[in-house]
Each structure stands twice: as C-alpha cells, then as structure tokens.
Specification:
- The structure is a single chain.
- By secondary structure, this protein is mostly helical.
- Helix content is about 75%, strand content about 0%.
- The chain contains 4 helices and no strands.
- α1 packs antiparallel against α2, α2 packs antiparallel against α3 and α3 packs antiparallel against α4.
C-alpha cells in the first residue's frame, strides 16, 4: 500500500470524483468536451495531487502538491457554480455535492496546516542551532 492510500482526504476526494462524474452525465451533449472536460480535469486533480505530494520526500514539496490539490478543488467548485448559472445543473445538485466538497476542503486544510507546522518547527530548530 502506498502512503497516499492511507490519507482520508484522498479517500474522500475519490468519492467526490465519482459523484461529480455521475452529475456530469446530465450535462448537455455540446458541453461534454467543454465545461464538462474542464470540470473532470480539475476534480481528478484533487486526489491526483494528493497522491503525487505524498510521494515527495520534502515537506515543502508535499505542501506544494497539497496546495495545488486545494486549488483544484476550488476550481472545480467554481465550475460547478457556473454550471448552475448556465442551468446545466440545478441548485439541488450543487447542494448535494457541497458537503463532500466541504469535507475534502477541511481535510486538505488540515493536511496543509500540519505540514506548515512541521516546516515552522524545523525552521525554529535550525534558528536555535539544532539540526
């Protein structure tokens, strides 16, 4: 088992990908290769960047990929809002996804905060003359 497979944020992000893909089936056919494709790329980027970040040995590199993951989540959410504005999905569809999005966002924020804390502790040890 790889490290990312133990991340709860990755597990929840996978579930979110499935939910979003199922929702995209209801989009008009002319959007399948436009907005749908963009939403697919951004939502798949969330667990993908968690996996890539977990494979990095540097805490700063891990943080970088976790931040990209969070940015991709916000991008996908924005695109889903736009899909609502365009009447491709309704408010109920978006509201059904919102708890999953919120859960993944909280988990990503927790991962980011723990890595930032780790980086800061390492920097303080260096400043105080400890390796």
């Amino acid at each position: 088992m790889y490290a990312f497979e133990n991340l709860n944020a990755w597990k929840e992000a996978r579930k979110l990908v499935v939910s979003v893909y199922q929702l995209l089936d209801s989009f008009p056919k002319f959007e399948k290769y436009a907005l749908c494709d963009q939403i697919r790329r951004s939502i798949v980027s969330v667990p993908s960047n968690l996996a890539e970040g977990s494979g990095r040995t540097s805490t700063k590199d891990q943080l970088h990929f976790y931040e990209i993951s969070y940015g991709s989540l916000m991008e996908a959410y924005n695109q889903l809002i736009l899909a609502t504005d365009l009447n491709y999905i309704d408010d109920n569809d978006l509201n059904r996804l919102r708890p999953q999005i919120d859960t993944v966002a909280r988990m990503l924020n927790g991962l980011r905060a723990s890595l930032i804390k780790k980086i800061n502790e390492t920097q303080m040890k260096t400043v105080n003359g400890k390796p």
